[in-house]
Amino acid sequence: MSRPVRKKAERKSPAERAAEIAAAAREVAVEDGISALTLRSIAARIDVAPALVAHYEPNMESLIARTFGGIVQAELIEVGALVADLATPRARLSHLLDTLLDGTRDDVTLIWVEAWAMGRRNEALAQRVRDEMDDWHAFLLGIVTAGVAEGEFETDDPAGVAWQLLGMIDGLNAHALVRWGDSGERGSRIGHAVEGMLGMRRGALAVG
Amino acid sequence: MSRPVRKKAERKSPAERAAEIAAAAREVAVEDGISALTLRSIAARIDVAPALVAHYEPNMESLIARTFGGIVQAELIEVGALVADLATPRARLSHLLDTLLDGTRDDVTLIWVEAWAMGRRNEALAQRVRDEMDDWHAFLLGIVTAGVAEGEFETDDPAGVAWQLLGMIDGLNAHALVRWGDSGERGSRIGHAVEGMLGMRRGALAVG
DNA sequence: CAACTTGTTGATCGTTTGATCAATAGTAGA
DNA sequence: TCTACTATTGATCAAACGATCAACAAGTTG
Q: What part of A 170-199 touches B (C-beta under 8 Å)?
């Protein structure tokens, strides 16, 4: 006779409850991916009736899209801050790659991979994915163009290089979702490829 | 009063029926992804009762895993044959990249992306994904080592380069699932990166 | 203190899914 | 021809999903 005991949820202001639901959704997504986002999984996490979650969201599509956006946006800000203080574009890029490929971000990688797939059935999510990819591209493009301006990098297609970088990072991380064990080597492998794209001599990226 | 009309399926030998079901599953997966593989979607395609599909498969997990394997294996064989006759490793690699990044293989890309995500809930699929990735890696490794032996490429970590190549290809293709429009540029962007990994001078990959 | 507003819930609906099983109807062998 | 075998099916189940809505109750206002 041990049913889930929930008396009655505390009454909160709409803004507060909406924020709580959004936070719960982010937690669920980080733990089990955005494919695990259901009215019931979110409601259970904050010990609330599923209908309440539905009451605060027009539909699941938009909730998934917004949750994806929140997580990915936060990561971009976090990573951006982590790199902002470094002296040179080369150092920023090198540290960025080390950070993104250190194998500790599989939770966010899963979210990206699921988003690419689910985006084909959820247009709101697809639009959000495009927006966030644009933001990441702009971030990388900033580093690349700065490096070109300072003479560290050399390319006639900075935007293309930025897309290429993003593709490499995402692809290697996606592989790690199923292939364990090689996380430590992910970062080191990408070096020469980046040097080739940016006209650097071999090993120049990782130095110092 | 227009119900789906199906009298009774023609009686076939187990081997024949099993092959038919496998083929139907591959068709469904290529059209709508492996997430669309259900007893009912497969049964409907060959105009058969859903229970018959279940009768031929122990469970959905293995059906999905085997269907994934069949599709991906076929593509590797197809692409391998497409490139086998070319004279030099450089030509093989160049043509391979052009082929895989020409934007005409989104169907298979969707299957890969879904497999990385679904592999976390379907161990049989995850194992199959690892196996197929190993095969692709071995294929790329063969080209790289041949190039090194013939003096076209230069690297002290051919296996790492092969993984890197695979990651780049998959990442760029995955992006295209949501970001259309740039398919024509995918192939051209990867060139300098590859040249950097393989110690080639700029532009050497694409020549002739 | 009464009336009103509204945050919250249980109940319920319609779908879709994988799975099981007794019953049916072709097919081959005696 | 009769019998044994088995490929195939309809019916059905439980689980999980998004969604809706009348009803309840905790605040707020007058």
A: 170-172, 174-175, 177-179, 182, 185, 188-190, 192-197, 199
The CATH 1.10.357.10 domain(s) of chain A lie at 61-197
> What is the CATH number assigned to the segment(s) A11-57?
1.10.10
Q: Please give the nucleotide, over all strands, whose C1' is closest to the CA of residue A12.
A: C7
d(CA A148, CA A158): 8
Residue B57 and residue B72: Cα distance in Å, rounded?
20
Alpha-carbon distance values, B47 to A34, B4, B18, B26, B41 (Å): 34, 10, 14, 15, 10
* Contacts A–B by Cβ distance under 8 A: 143
What tens digit of pLDDT does each residue of B68-118 get?
999 999 999 999 999 999 999 999 999 999 999 998 999 999 999 999 999
Model's pTM, two decimal places? 0.94
**Strand C and B54 CB separated by under 7 Å:** yes
| Distance of alpha carbon B89 from alpha carbon B198, whole angstroms | 12
Q: Which of A72, A192, A194 to mutate to test the interface with B (most CBs of B within 10 A)?
A: A192
In chain B, positions 60-89, which contact chain A (CB-CB < 8 Å)? none
The sign of the torsion formed by the CA atoms of A144, A146, A152, A153 equals positive
**Which residues in chain A are classed under CATH 1.10.10?**
11-57
pLDDT tens digit string along B122-175? 999 999 999 999 999 999 999 999 999 999 999 999 999 999 999 999 999 999
Top CATH class, B66-197 = mainly alpha
For A113, the closest of B117, B179, B193 (CB atoms) is B117
The span from the CA of A148 to the CA of A194, in Å, is 14
Which single residue is written with the structure tokens 């293989």? B105
Inter-chain touch B130–A179, beta carbons under 8 Å: yes
CA of residue A69 to C1' of nucleotide D19, angstroms: 24
CATH of the domain spanning B12-57:
1.10.10
- Architecture field, domain A61-197: Orthogonal Bundle (1.10)
